[in-house]
Amino acid sequence: MYERKTMPDLNCGLDLIGEVLYGKWKMRLLWFINEGFQRPSELQRKIPGASRRVLNVQLKELENHELVGKVIYPVVPPKVEYYLTDFGKSLIPVIGAIGQWGDQHDQRLRTLIEKNIQS
């Protein structure tokens, strides 16, 4: 189990949001859950570049931060579904705005990222 070596710096809103949303797949997980993809297998199909373990860790962190909730159905095989809490739903417009900004600057960002990868 991962144990944090240093305490996070939580002096402003940017620090707080970074602590909650830091993780390669967290914003996509929130977005896809909001879009109706609630089962772990559905989320895995939507984000094929992520391992199941990493998705589970990040879903657990989102759950710990009360952005998502989980329903476990008492069936065999086990069935789990995730949902956005009201707190999590409040982030959807912010994630949408970030996505729109990325779309607006798509070409420039791709060029810069590719340039930095090659350096």
From TrEMBL:
It comes from the Bacteria. The keyword Cell membrane does not apply. SUPFAM superfamilies: Winged helix' DNA-binding domain (SSF46785). InterPro entries: HTH_HxlR, WH-like_DNA-bd_sf, WH_DNA-bd_sf. Keywords: DNA-binding, Transcription, Transcription regulation. Pfam families: HxlR. Residues 12-110 form the HTH hxlR-type domain. The keyword RNA-binding does not apply. This is Transcriptional regulator. It comes from Dyadobacter endophyticus.
